[in-house]
Structures are given as structure tokens and as C-alpha cells.
């Protein structure tokens, strides 16, 4: 499946450089999207793991459909509302990487299971109290609910912290016939700081061993046992460790989300570390040597905006802001500069042009006093991280490499 | 006009405490909304200025209609898309407190003027280049465009910085018959730090004097001359200074936006300073003494969420995050705590419960080890500032004081 409509005459498509799009706009390069899509699918295929990309990143059903068509096992999402979007986009397996808490939310899931009887939906669980609440609700609704036991990181977020919690939780789940324990889940992305790689490795090994232990104890009520981890920073380690056992019932599932558009900030850094580890791995004798892909992920999401004002020397004001772009992992970074009606094509933005501040609807950019810049010039900016840029938009423009708009993709936040 | 449907049987309305709403949800208390609405309208009425509330805060047409019905002169917005929403909500005067830059954006405004022939639309201008671009575009489209000359703050954002810029800009505007200079605008909210009040006062006096000066020079092509300023922090000073002249053609217009729902963070602080200044003013002989309203603005916007996990002592995880609430002016603050099925009514949240972190879809809350809290408990949290909470939601729930949902108001971001 492709978003590209090659039969269309480019002149009939709206073009960014011809100023046929009001700015600011959020654009995704189709070629980079397709590249990243295939890159990650190849990776999981070669590693013998399954992919349930985290859909919360884009919440764009058109992109979910691409991910599923490329071979994803299912979709990961974070909320019951997002689960419905994933099911609507054709996912038959949906992993809600979150606890299901509260009657209103349980009702959403219950209705979803009625509307999609074939849907395999998994939720996380980490407390006896939640097991009781879910057990009661789904006993009343006479529906089965598949659960993954979450193992957390001390000082991190959700998830059981010790063996006693795991034991008590498994016992409680067994009291409720509607609750089916179907696997174990973790999110290692919460481990930061010094010696992160060692601690991530240790944590993942522990999680795998808990899963193997629960298997031995026959705690799972499903034939296939899911063992899932991985954001976009450590998916290589998760793949490595979650296939390292001799238990055929275990299905290792990775859940990266940001890889699809990637970025030029925190995920570019994280991916550089992934690539280093993959190269290191290639040099060992343990693997076949084809795990390190020849090309890397590409940054494919940009905000396009206008220079709106040049009010004083050294300062440009752009017409986008916190309502248009992520700003919590560094400010957006100018990538391209284009003067409509004058330039034949965008040029790489001067490295000296740097954002110094951002407000709701404006961004401040520092420029040299003699910068070649005018009110009405366009800038394309990369942002980090992608999740918090996507959620600012109701529509994402998918463009070709000539800046023609191939498709307007609706988001469903 | 009121959002309250008093004829409805409360039992037939969905209720937050009965868990009939999936959480997280963004709610606005109708009583506080109505209070704030009337508070600000009374203020401007008494001060002899007009109100064009900044609609970008809520981007909720149902609230725009309330503001207009309460007596607002028009609506302020930040973009051409927002201008269309304001016009659609019935505003006949729309002040776009922003430069109109780029063909795609000019086309949106041009189409809007065609669709709403009675609409009085004003845009800001601060550069000769932009005047040329607008002049050319609107000469081609044969439409008139009303402009307000923006005066900026040094080191701040958009707006002319000196008399030479103002002079050159006025000259350029005069070359283009379609461009109508209709007034002067500033945003004093960019002045921060030490001696802010003195610097704000001085800046506002300068802006007023520039307007008076341009009037003397007959630079305005409209009968009525707009003199506009004010976010939600200094509107009292703007009102004070922008009426302090003897020029009947001048129409002073305030543009606060956040007052409608207020907050418990930066705008609560700013409003405390406003109230102090109003009290100080009452004690002088200059005013009649009825400018200080008996009650203050009320915080009316909350995020309701569940306690999703209590994974380790001292830590609770809530099921909302950066995608649900503002987090750039302090983290959300727990206000109410409610245990569904047990508590008769929400209690004030323990002051020791404090957010320590926020991720895309989760928040971390510090609690005492012996806190009376359970998975499945509800929390209501205030946020700051409101603009960046509103834009996370496609629907806002308007509730009565018994937590019944009176109306589901669509946002138009």
C-alpha cells in the first residue's frame, strides 16, 4: 500500500512552494515515511520478533493502515479511544500499553469488543485493586479481557516492582474467570542516566525471566504468551533479549512508535546509539551479520512556517508556536529556507539561525544581523519529539519530494 | 444566553461522579464561566472601553457566542483559520492580533471576506515588506483590508520598534488604496521582570501617544480609530491609559482571553496584581470608587483523571499527560479527590499530593506513604495556563455545580 498517487498530474496537486497551502502546516515526506516503515519492518523480520507500532505517536489512521499493510502484527495504543481508532483502521490485534481504569473507560472497551468481535485487545495490569475492578465489570458484562502483567522500573511509572506484587496480582486474576492473563509487558524507556545500557539489559532479562517463571507456573490462560517491550530507543536490546530463550509459546513484540517519522532531536540521538550497538553486534560471531541495515531512519516530519516579522536586528519572528510543534525536547530546528517567487528550490537553512523562544502562536529566531531573510520567506523546521508535534494537528500533509501534497491525512486525537 | 439547560432532569444528564464520562476529560464549571464572563464585561463597561476577548484561548465557538451575547465588541483571534471560526460564531468584528503573511493565508482571508461581506476584519502590520505583499494581493483581489499598526516591545516579539519604522510603514500603506490604516495595536504582556509595572505604563503611554500623533497627521483612513492592547495580566493599566486623552475618534479595545476560565497558576498571580492595583486606585480620588469588583475571577477549567497505579510507596500514577493538560507554566495541581461508589462528594485534595512529572499520557504524583488513595480514585486538577490546556481537546465538558454535564462544547483548533 502506498500513499503516493503517481497517476496524478503534479500540476493538479497543491504545492507548498507555490504557496498553495496556508502556513503553518505539518508535513510528512512520503519517501521518508515509506523508507522508515520498511526499515523497521525489515528489522523485526530479521530479528524474529513481531511489531505492534505505538500508534499514539501519529494517531493517523492512514499511517496505521500503512504499518499494518507492511506487516505489523498489530497496533499499540494508549487509551480506549485510541483503541477504537486502531480497530477502525483495520487492526485485529490492539495492545493498550496502559492500565484500564474507571467505569467510563471500561464501558468504552466493552463497547469496542461488541463492535469488533474478532478484535484481540490486550490491556496492562499492575494492581490487585484494578484486577478486582476489571473482574467485577467484565463479569457483569460477560466479556473476556486479555491482560498483560506489567513489570515496572523502580522510580519510573506504572508496573509491578517486586515478586510479591506479581504473585498477589496473579492470584487475584485467577479469581476472575473473565480475566485472561496473556503475557508480560514492560517499558524500558524509563531507564535513563548513567550506565543506562547495562541497567536496561538487566531489567529486560528480569522481565523475560519473570515471564518464563510464570509460564512454568502455568499462570497464563492463553496458548500464545506475549512478551512485549520497547519504545524507539532500546528496541534492538529488547529484540535481542526477548528472543533469547527456548520457549516456543512466547511471542516477542516490539512497540516503537517514533521510528515512522523519526526526528532530528532525542530520537536521532537514541537511534545513533541503536546503530552503534548494531554495528558492534555485527562484529561478534553471535549473529549472522545482516542486522545492521545499510541506511538509517530519516527525519520525515516538518513544520512549515512563514517569517512574519523582522522587527529588530538579529531577530526574526515565525508564525508558528507551541500550538503547532513539540517544544519539550529542545526547540524546533530550522532545516530549509525558501523565498517564494524567487528561489527555484529550498536551500539548507543557515546553521546560525536558531530558535530562542516559543510562545503559543509565535517563535523567536536568532539570526545574524546581515542574514539574507525577508518577511514572507518560508522555513521548514524539524521538531522533537514527534508525538507532541502530531497531536497539535487535525490534518497532516503528506508530500512528495517536489513538495506536492499527495494526501491530507486526518489525525484522531 | 446561558449554557445551562435547567429544564433538564439532572438524572438524565451524564454525571462525572457517577463515572458516566471516560477520563481524562477537560471540564469547565458553568457557574464560574458565567461569573467570569460577566465580571470582565462589567469591568470594561465601567471603564468605558470595549472588549474583543482573545478567542485563541478557548477556540470554542459556544464560548465565543456567550462572550458576544454578553456584550463583547468583537472577537480577537490569531490566525485566518481562527478568524473563520469567530465569524462562524457570529462575530461581526474580528481582530486578528497577528500579521497576515503568505499567499495561502491571504487567500483564506480573502475568501472569508467574500463569505462574510459585513465582517469588519483587522490585521496587524509592522513592516514595509508585508505592506507591499498585502497591497499587491488585495489590489489583485479588489478587496479592502483594515490594518492596525503594531508597536512592539524591544527584545519582545512583533511590532515596530521606532519612529522611523512607523513613518516608513505609514508611507508604504498610503501607496496601496486597498489598505486602510484603522488604528494602533500593542501587546504589553511581553514586558516581564523588574519594574514591570513602570515599564508597562511607559510603553502603553508611548503607544497611545503614537496613535494620537498619527491621528494629528491624518494617517488613518477610517472614522473610528482603534487603540488596542491587553492580555489577561495588564488589562487594567491598558484601560486606564488608553482612555486618558480627549480624542473622540479613538476606540480603546482590550483583548484578554484567559479571564474566561482563569487558572490557578500564572493568571491567578497576574490577577492578584490586577486586584491590588484596582484597590489602590479606589483609594485615590481620581476614580468613582466602583472599579474594584467585590469578587474576583474564578478558576473554572479542570482536568479530571483517574489514579491508574500505585506502584511503589509515595508514588501515584494518573492517567493523563502532556496530551491532556498545559505543563509549561508549572505542573497541574490536584484540587479535588473523589472515590467513586464510596464518597458522597469530592473532597479538597491533600496539599501534600503534588505532581512531580508528566509524560505524554501519564502524570506522576508524589504522595505521603500513608495517603488515603486507591487505584480508581478520581482527581480534578487545575492547570496553567488555560490556552495550552484547551488546545489539547476536541470537546470540553461544561458541567454544573453537581458535576452533571450540561453541554459538550466542540473546540475548533
TrEMBL record, chains A, B:
Keywords: Lyase. Residues 300-400 form the D-serine dehydratase-like domain. It comes from the Bacteria. InterPro entries: Ala_racemase_N (IPR001608), D-amino_acid_metab_enzyme (IPR051466), D-ser_dehydrat-like_dom (IPR026956), D-ser_dehydrat-like_sf (IPR042208), PLP-binding_barrel (IPR029066). Belongs to the DSD1 family. PANTHER family: D-SERINE DEAMINASE (PTHR28004:SF8), ZGC:162816-RELATED (PTHR28004). This is Amino acid deaminase. It comes from Microbulbifer bruguierae.
